[in-house]
Automatic annotation (TrEMBL):
This is Vacuolar fusion protein MON1. Residues 169-265 form the FUZ/MON1/HPS1 second Longin domain. InterPro entries: FUZ/MON1/HPS1_longin_1 (IPR043972), FUZ/MON1/HPS1_longin_2 (IPR043971), Longin-like_dom_sf (IPR011012), Mon1 (IPR004353). GO terms for cellular component: fungal-type vacuole membrane; Mon1-Ccz1 complex; multivesicular body membrane. The lineage of its organism: Eukaryota, Fungi, Fungi incertae sedis, Mucoromycota, Mucoromycotina. It is a peripheral membrane protein.
């Protein structure tokens, strides 16, 4: 449609069988003929033992990322480079892995090549939409970095000290996030947390208002940490713009983490109107 063509950048995800899975704009079910053409172009190169990476057509640039059993395509006239667009496609791939894991995705399509993945992704498309919007508004994606809340050193150290009180069993990561930016992160010495995994976690928080209403306990795959399995994330907003996120290796620690969160809140409140509480809230 005319509205579809007015956008300067599109993202499309399809299966290796040419089945549409997600489109940034419009209804993906209405572009099945278009995804069929994309699949045919990709197959033409594959038949010649080659891999298509990009096509320039007038003002438009088509960039391809082939991650069997899924194909990712960026169509852009924004002037962004092939590398920048490919990095964005990698993020979209990781967003799908955060919901399904690479093992689960491979197993599904091994059993049925023509599987309609939209049935499993139902309700999570909002995170793909949110992520693709963030590419235009947040340059930290381009630099592989992460935005942190601007705080004085002593304030950040205080937040870290509060977070480290009373470590819970099977806890892998714990963090405080304020105003959609990282305040402090607690992690084991041997396990760093890749910025792209943090971006996916932040996107999950900002992409939906569901987590604002109650304590949440959700399976989550962090692809850079381990693309083949799930961790479990405890998420609770202790104020309108302040959340506590704890990531556990065990699926049975919800109540333990919830109790620990209550202790954290009491410690923060005990500081009264100090600079920590003022800045976070």
């Amino acid at each position: 449609s005319t509205n579809w063509l007015q956008h300067k950048k599109h993202f499309i995800i399809l299966s290796s069988a040419g089945k549409p899975i997600w489109s940034r704009y419009g209804d993906e079910s209405r572009i099945s003929s278009f995804t069929g053409v994309i699949q045919a172009i990709i197959s033409f190169f594959q038949d010649s033992d080659d891999t298509i990476k990009s096509i320039n057509a007038g003002d438009y640039k088509f960039v391809f990322l082939l991650k069997e059993p899924l194909y990712f395509v960026a169509i852009s006239k924004t002037g962004e480079s092939d590398t920048q667009l490919k990095d964005q496609l990698v993020y979209l791939h990781n967003q799908i892995l955060s919901v399904l894991t690479s093992s689960q995705l491979t197993r599904i399509f091994e059993q049925r090549v023509n599987f309609d993945l939209r049935r499993l992704l139902g309700g999570t498309e909002v995170f793909l939409d949110s992520l693709s919007t963030s590419f235009n508004n947040d340059h930290s994606f381009m630099f592989g970095a992460l935005q942190v809340l601007r705080l004085g050193r002593s304030t950040r150290e205080l937040a870290g000290q509060i977070l480290s009180k009373g470590m819970a069993k099977d806890l892998l990561y714990a963090m405080v996030i304020a105003k959609d930016k990282l305040v402090t992160l607690l992690r084991p010495r041997k396990h760093s947390l890749h910025p792209s995994d943090l971006h996916l976690l932040f996107n999950m928080l900002t992409g939906s208002t569901t987590f604002h209403t109650a304590e949440s306990w959700t399976p989550l795959c962090l692809p850079k940490f381990n693309s083949k399995g799930f961790l479990h994330a405890y998420i609770c907003y202790i104020d309108t713009s302040v959340s506590v996120v704890m990531i556990s290796t065990s699926k049975d620690t919800f109540f333990e983490l919830s109790a620990w969160k209550e202790k954290l809140v009491k410690v923060i409140q005990a500081y009264g109107t100090t600079h920590l509480q003022t800045l976070l809230y």
